[in-house]
Specification:
The complex is a heterodimer of chains A (123) and B (275).
Chain A lengths: L4 E4 L3 H14 L4 E4 L2 H7 L7 E5 L9 H10 L5 E6 L6 H8 L3 E5 L4 H9 L4
Parallel strand pairs in A: 1-2, 1-3, 3-4, 4-5
Chain B lengths: L9 H30 L4 H22 L6 H23 L11 H12 L5 H24 L10 H66 L6 H21 L10 H4 L12
Helix pairs in contact in B: 1-2, 1-3, 2-3, 3-5, 4-5, 4-6, 5-6, 6-7
The chains are: A alpha/beta (123), B mainly alpha (275).
């Protein structure tokens, strides 16, 4: 079954590009949000099968870790993937590594990697 | 415009401050000794020596107050000018009959430790002065013994031991100062390298999003996707963001003293090895 994807990235253009790429690769819909607040207001989180989250969503704003924590509170059943360009020993990346059932991808990531995420648990 | 200010050198600055303290001690010590000698009706020559030495020290004080740009040679010369006269006054004092009750080997021992504790600019000068004072002390011991003076039975061995300890203290202070310099230098290098690492990582972080947009946009176009408004906008914005990074670095250009090794900064990616 094709996946429904949500992308959370404070760079809206990048978010839209990722969605366009996933749509080309066969995703069953992709929505992009610039922040945790925007995601909350949309009510789309529960319907998604895959969440691609930028770890750093801007200074002084809830980070990608906070987004993942909120998704867990919602009993989100989909896969959570972090996207980051930070060093592996960056505090936010280390916090992401501590979260169970998450994957971390280094920017820049390719279409092949996004395709692998979509195919993910397909039989 | 030429830079007329002397570069800050912590050792030279510390040496100049030490000289000021040395001046205070010289003036006060000599005036006190002069007061004692007056009561004992000591020879005029000795009084003149002490007074002249105090006046010289006072003159040096007013010179240092003007904070002149002293060279290393100048500081060493002032250092010697403050210390060497003591060698003369100690020798003259031990030959004065009215001062026979004084322990003429006490003052040299005190001076030796004083010179060893004040870390000088030129440790060789202080080593030479301490050795000179030690030899003079041995000469005083010999002369006093020949004159029949009642010296402690521990002399001259106690004097020799004291001067050996003073020299050891001086060498230890010099080695400690060198270690302190190395520690400061290492800590400074570590702090600078950490700052550079943070700067590089910050630049990489800022470049990641534009690189990601360029990567996805180029792969979409390669796979035959139409050049949509989002793709074009993403590419344009990426160029703007990378240009902004470029502008950020312009302020660092003035800090590089360009030399031959700085002129070639090419990565392997830009010049791949020939297959």
């Amino acid at each position: 079954m094709a996946k429904r994807v949500i992308v959370i990235d404070d760079d809206e253009q990048l978010g839209q590009l990722i969605c366009q790429s996933l749509s080309m690769l066969g995703a069953n819909g992709c929505l992009s949000f610039p922040s945790l607040d925007a995601l909350r207001k949309s009510g789309e989180a529960a319907r998604a099968d895959l969440a691609i989250i930028d770890i750093n969503l801007g200074a002084g704003k809830p980070s990608g870790i906070d987004v993942a924590a909120w998704l867990h509170e919602l009993d989100f059943e989909g896969k959570i993937v972090f996207l980051t360009g930070h060093a592996r020993n960056h505090p936010l990346v280390r916090a992401a590594c501590d979260l169970a059932t998450t994957e971390i991808l280094q920017k820049p990531t390719s279409l092949d990697t996004l395709a692998r995420l979509l195919e993910g648990d397909r039989g | 415009m030429a830079n007329t200010q002397r570069p800050y050198d912590p050792d030279t600055e510390a040496a100049q401050r030490a000289l000021v303290h040395g001046v205070y001690l010289t003036v006060i010590g000599n005036l006190l000794m002069l007061a004692v000698l007056l009561t004992l009706a000591a020879p005029v020559m000795l009084q003149v020596l002490l007074l002249g030495h105090a006046v010289l020290a006072a003159g040096i004080f007013f010179l240092l107050r003007a904070r002149p740009a002293l060279t290393v040679l100048g500081i060493n010369a002032i250092d010697a000018a403050l210390i060497v006269p003591y060698l003369g006054s100690i020798w003259v004092a031990q030959g004065v009959p009215t001062l026979a009750a004084f322990d003429h080997l006490f003052a040299p021992k005190l001076l030796a430790f004083g010179w060893a504790m004040v870390v000088p600019l030129s440790y060789r000068l202080h080593v030479a002065l301490i050795v000179g004072l030690g030899l003079e002390s041995l000469a005083i011991w010999y002369r006093q013994t020949a004159m029949g003076a009642a010296l402690p039975a521990t002399e001259p061995w106690f004097t020799i031991l004291t001067f050996w300890m003073a020299l050891s203290l001086l060498v230890l202070r010099i080695k400690q100062r060198n270690i302190d310099h190395q520690v400061v230098e290492l800590r400074t290098r570590t702090a600078v390298l950490t700052e550079i690492a943070v700067l590089f990582l910050r630049v990489r972080d800022l470049a990641n999003s534009p690189l990601q947009k360029i990567t996805l946009a180029s792969e979409l176009l390669e796979r035959g996707q139409p050049a949509s408004a989002e793709v074009i906008a993403g590419l344009r914005q990426s160029v703007v963001e990378i240009q902004a990074l470029h502008a950020q670095f312009q302020r660092y250009e003035q800090f590089v003293p360009w030399n031959a090794t700085h002129l070639t900064l090419e990565t392997d990616a830009a010049n791949p090895p020939a297959k």
